[in-house]
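Tutorial handout. Part one gives the primary structure; part two gives the three-dimensional structure as tokens.
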Amino acid sequence: MKPYLFSIITVCLTLSGSIGFTQSRFSAGPHASMTFMPVRNTDNFGPLYQIGTNSGVFFSYDLSPRLAITAELNYHLKRQFNDRTDTSNLISDLGSTVGQVIDGLQLPEGINLNTYKNHSDLHTMHYIELPVMLNVKASNFKFSVGPFVGVMVGGSTKTETNIDVPLFQIIDLSSQIPFFNQLIGFIYPGYGSPSITKTSGTSDFNKIDAGIVADVSYQIPNNLNFGLRYQQGFIDYRKTPVGDNRWNSSIQVHVGYRFGQGKPEKGASQPHSFDWKKNKKD
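Part two.
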């Protein structure tokens, strides 16, 4: 996690402790989760997942013993996988001189002279998110649902490129053209062996994400809580979408700690408060 995110969470933890202990209806605390994000579907194995993290603090206000409103401030690491293919013409790519040589070979009619650049992109995205949820309590269980909005604060893309040239699988041009293999390797990084590149920045991403979260959690007597959450975004993470919508979604397993007791059940003892009017000197 980036250093400034630690600062944000530290300040929020300090505030959560003070609020939780001084207001009977308030509770707050830290939480952290491991997230599982479906990034691609495969014929043999079904959906494949990437692992990320989600951590931050929550602030909860009890409307009644059974209902509460909770807001969170979270750092969320998300990942997405994207396959794409660029197609070009081999003769145009290699230039007129090499093109004339290829034309002079009198290749069979209908042979494929295209070049296919197959790219596999792994996107890593860093968000600051604010979910706001309505909570329904039932014994030690809590069911929550509500919207969230996120702002991207960092991103990077790791790309693996493989070049497919059908013509080179039919005919070996290295014997016809000097330094042909070196030329192909220069023009087509990724031909013969994968080419790996990495770029940083958020210019290719949509800076805003928004959607809905649904959560169920269980609190044990020492104020620890465990839960399961589903989060679904409704904004394509790509700045210039191509094809089907690509939304961020994740399943999260989380643990947290609550400071403060919130609104007590009916008949429970109330926290002591100081009546300054009664003790005011005349």
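Part three, for discussion. The chain is about 15% helix and 50% strand. The longest strand covers residues 114-138.
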